[in-house]
């Protein structure tokens, strides 16, 4: 930075749309620039998380945080930290480990300030440890999903790696998402496998112009409980785009046929799944779930065997779901 520049840094400001780290650069000869940094080392992007920085209300909130009158979208630049090499998303450029490590190595040797060199060296070691794959196909799946000796959250990254590797080569037309969460005091790692090419039955329209269709859909969701070492898989019947119950009630208001059509789709899909339930799956009739299965890990459970069981159960259920949607299709 130049000597006449002023740099302000804020982190964890809270509120919708505020990034993990915000860096404001002010110069006497130009408009302020803001660097918004999202930490995605242990998470995937939330719904429209980077896209939302183009919204006027979010830009106003960022301006207020730094006591500015306003900020334009052109003044906001984005980085998101990622363990993988990913492209640009809505103006946010990925800063992957392959970019970060060489830069830190260079900084540890060339920085004039010895404190900066020391910090760069220590950070490079942490990044290298975080990035390194600690599991092997023949190793224990339980240990791979449990160990985190440096306290860096590596077990969640391992969870993503193990699941991504299991479905490698078979994700055409499907998307795989991951997240971390907690329920009733237990922490868990979660994920969702969605078949984007499956032509789900459409049953409604979202706006008066009748250009956006609301379709019914099924997703395969999985949840790994860190306390019980149990992986639960469930078939969710939902809508695409997914909408909370309150929003669905607003859509149903004055449109009883919409609710009936959705109920019809759920009944027909559920009946087909029940009649053709794969081995190791059970009927599960909850708010969203229509079927479920569980895998309990032991210390002797190799990663490769766990992946094979996972893929076998998902493949069996995916076949049944594809058949169900084919019957529903007009």
Q: Helical content, roughly?
A: 25-40%
Low-pLDDT windows of residues:
204-211
In this structure, how is the largest beta sheet organized?
A: 7 strands, antiparallel
Counting helices, strands and paired strands, the structural category is alpha+beta
Q: How much strand content do the residues show? A: 25-35%
Alpha-carbon distance between the termini? 62 Å
Give the number of DSSP strands. 12
Number of helices: 8
Radius of gyration: 24 Å
Order of helices and strands: EEEHEEHHHHEEEEEHHEEH
Mean of residue pLDDT values: 78
Envelope shape = flat
Question: What is the structure about, briefly put?
Answer:
This protein has eight helices and twelve strands. It has 330 residues and is α+β, with helices and mostly antiparallel strands. Strands 6, 7, 8, 9, 10, 11 and 12 form a seven-stranded antiparallel sheet that branches. Strands 1-2-3-4-5 form a five-stranded mixed sheet.
């Amino acid at each position: 930075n130049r000597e006449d520049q002023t740099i302000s840094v804020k982190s964890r400001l809270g509120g919708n749309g505020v990034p993990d780290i915000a860096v404001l650069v002010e110069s006497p000869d130009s408009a302020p620039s803001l660097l918004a940094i999202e930490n995605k080392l242990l998470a995937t992007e939330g719904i429209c998380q980077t896209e939302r920085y183009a919204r006027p209300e979010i830009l106003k909130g960022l301006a207020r945080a730094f006591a500015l009158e306003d900020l334009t979208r052109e003044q906001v630049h984005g980085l998101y930290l990622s363990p993988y090499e990913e492209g640009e998303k809505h103006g946010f450029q990925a800063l992957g480990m392959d970019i970060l490590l060489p830069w830190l190595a260079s900084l540890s040797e060339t920085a004039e300030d010895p404190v900066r060199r020391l910090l760069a060296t220590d950070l490079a070691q942490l990044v290298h440890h975080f990035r390194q794959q600690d599991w092997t196909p023949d190793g224990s799946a339980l240990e791979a999903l449990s160990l985190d000796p440096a306290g860096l959250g590596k077990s969640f990254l391992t969870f993503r790696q193990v699941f991504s590797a299991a479905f490698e080569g078979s994700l055409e037309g499907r998307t795989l998402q991951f997240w971390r969460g907690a329920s009733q005091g237990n922490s868990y790692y979660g994920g969702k496998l969605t078949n984007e090419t499956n032509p789900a039955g459409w049953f409604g329209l979202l706006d008066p112009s009748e250009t956006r269709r609301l379709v019914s859909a099924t997703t395969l969701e999985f949840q790994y409980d860190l306390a019980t070492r149990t992986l639960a898989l469930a078939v969710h019947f939902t809508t695409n785009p997914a909408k909370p119950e309150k929003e669905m009630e607003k859509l149903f208001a004055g449109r009883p046929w919409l609710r009936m059509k959705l109920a019809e789709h759920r009944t027909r899909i559920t009946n087909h799944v029940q009649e053709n339930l794969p081995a190791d799956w059970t009927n599960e009739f909850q708010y969203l779930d229509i079927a479920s299965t569980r895998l309990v890990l032991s210390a002797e459970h190799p990663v490769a065997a766990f992946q094979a069981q996972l893929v076998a159960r998902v493949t069996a259920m995916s076949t049944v779901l594809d058949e169900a949607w084919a019957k529903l299709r007009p």
